[in-house]
Amino acid sequence: IRAGWLDKNPPQGSYIYQKRWVKLDTDYLRYFDSEKDAYSKRLIPVSSISRVTSVGDQKFEVITNNRNFVFRAESDADRNEWIRTLQQIAEERKSKAPERTSMSLATDSATEPADKSGFLELRGFKHKLFVVVAGDKVFLYKNAEDYRLGIGITYIEMNVGNVKEVDRRGFDLTTPYRIFSFSADSEQEKEEWVEAMQQSIIEALSSSEVAERIWAVESNRSCADCGSPKPDWASINLCVVICKRCAGEHRGLGPGITKVRSLKMDRKVWTEELIKLFQQFGNAMANEFWAANVPPSEAIGPTSGSQERRRFLIAKYREGKYRHYHPLFGNQEELDRALCVAVTTSDLKETQALLFCGASVTCDTGDSECPTPLALAERSGQRLQMEFLLHNKTSELRGLPSALLCRAEFSRRWCTLQDGVLSYYENDRNTVPNGEIRVEEIVCLVNNPPHTHGIESTFEVYTGAERLYLFGLESPDSAREWLKSIAKSFVHPCAEELLVLDFERFGRLHYKGGLTLERAQEGWFVLVGSTLHVCSEDGQRQEPLQLRKLQELCAWPAFLGVVDTQWGLGGAWPPAEASCAGRTLYIQGERKLDFLGWVHAIQKAAGSSGDTLSEQQLTESDVPLLVDRCIDYITQCGLTSEGIYRKSGQNSKTTSLLEVLQRDARRVRLKEGEHHVDDVANTLKRFFRDLGDGLFTQQWAPDWLWATALEDEEAKVSEYRQLLGALPAVNRATLKALINHLFRVQCFSGENQMNTHNLAIVFGPTLFQTDGKDYKAGRVVEDLINHYVEIFNVNDQEMKKQQDEIMAIMKMREASSSGMQQAGDFICTVYLEEKKTETEQHVKIPATMTAEELTFEILDRRKIVMKEKDYWSCFEVNEREEAERPLHYSEKVL
Ligand SMILES: [Zn+2]
Fold it and tell me: Which PROSITE patterns does UniProt cross-reference here (predicted)?
């Protein structure tokens, strides 16, 4: 940038200025004895220059953090020009790395990160020099202190170097300009130096073509992890460009997490596609994900030590501690599905987020032509997506962080819980703990299922600072004991009664519910099986939430909406005073880590967990939602369909419908036109046929069959009633719902040709899971339908209500067949203000009808004129009137 003769101020004790040839480039200010010299007498890194000022006639001073250098120019003009150029260069350097200048004051970033450093004798010098091999250069310093300050003698560019061993301790570094004869302290030392310098030559000679292209992107010009300039290494699966020192630590994480390659030496891996991927992706996009939340106290810089670096990289890439969580985090199926979509677009950022939040590279796409995401990307012509997937094919999954510790990583610690501090020690004799968790910081405790982490019992402790600690124990009992003790030490006294529960998950969360929708309150949440217990901060224990009976469960990135017949979901609609007290629950995601764990756990607990009746999602009246959905649909659309339940429907449609219903019946809406009644009927039969333990249970089924032999009709009915009482509640409720349904179906045998006997032939073997060779099973069903009212204690009121409903349905069907109706209409009973026969209206509700339209329709029918300040709204009320929820005016009623 600038070179010229200057007088350098004399060393101490001398008055004679020395004439020096001074050279400035972007990195260093150096001075030489003459302009022909290749090696300087002094080098000052530009990055260490803090100020340049003029001092008296023609002189100027270069001020570094620790030392000042005075030069004298030939004229004021020359002097001013030097000052101007130096200031500009130093300024530019600062602005390029603003976050590091502040750090450099403290830790001298001027120092080159060393591959090898130490003292060597150099012929021609009285004292040993401090020699540093760094990248493609060898630096000479007067002493270690100068190295720390960054003020060196000279550097040797190794692209012109050659190393030769001379004797036991000596070796020569030969360059075209000079031979440096070094001598080490020992033979072994010498060998290490020779090796390091040879490595440096290789690096200097390697091609920088790839590096130059990748550096063309601004963010790739400094290390993605520590910010060092000109990083010439990369992790090809994480798509980050990193410095040599970080690369060394990356290697320690293992290739399952990061695949380290040199930009300059590993020429073969750098295909055109991979270079393009790095140009598009680059450090900026990678860090938007991986370093979204790095606390300043944990960040590293170019001078960070090896341990610090390692700790940071483990947290960043292995634990994913600072990452930007994808909203679907924790939901494997959804993640995989989203990945299959993302790879067909150019959205690499989305793919990155999905992949490193747990989506599986090898997930099943459900597309037989393109069974893997890679094949999908190929079909869509997304070359960069393919490249990205390819390099991450063998990467370890990064799902829930808790899954990241494996057995080998457990180390034995002595733990104590005392005075509100959970401490862990190297052993029971140590007095200084390795770490401490203050119990008031704990926000969640999780008791993992056995063998989750390769050891018998593990539990997790989450803190408010988004940290997760995993503890392992030999027995489930001791794990439970620890959990209870820890929970007891931090739970609010008002919620202490929750501690008697054998919980899987215990913690505090913010939620809104009931009358306090405006204000979130803190509550204590306990998950036991599929039951969620909640205790508010003022000590009020809510009715436990049966998660399998939820009406709806909606997970958003920031909160989880739980709709229960008990709770009801609020939403955009305003909370209705008093009427919905305690029936609305939003769980808010204030912290990511434990909240996502809760969402995942609640979603899981709210789904069907097996193939027996009680493991299904249930309605309020204990009937599997799946059964309820099918019966409802047949009642609305299939009562008059000829051969209903006898005709078999399409096998493939039945299979897929049963599958989606079993996965999450809550989300399935059966619609006329979309689902054929025979397919739905067949689905219901298939469900009972495959049901674990059967509707009548293995234990009691023989007794039911035996009862058919009783000749006295009255004795038989009484036997059935007794057997009914012996069934588990869910089986009893389900059997009642089904027989009630079949009772209605046979009422229409004139149209559907399915009388009681025909239904019994179909349902007997299905419900008893027999081959149907004898009629015993059919007999039971026939008897149950015939004696429906007595066996199930159905009263007149219930019968009348059902008949009215059926009448309404029939009326609607008639109208429908005359072409006046839209497919998909349902008949609903709507009450005005109170549930009384006089206020009852049967309304046909099209799929598109909103709550507002329904409200107006009812008001219109009742000839109610809206007055000013009248507010009407539509509520959904469950059968037993225990719960209701207001509908938003624009919400669809169905
Ligand atoms: Zn680095």
Answer: ARFGAP, PH_DOMAIN, RA, RHOGAP
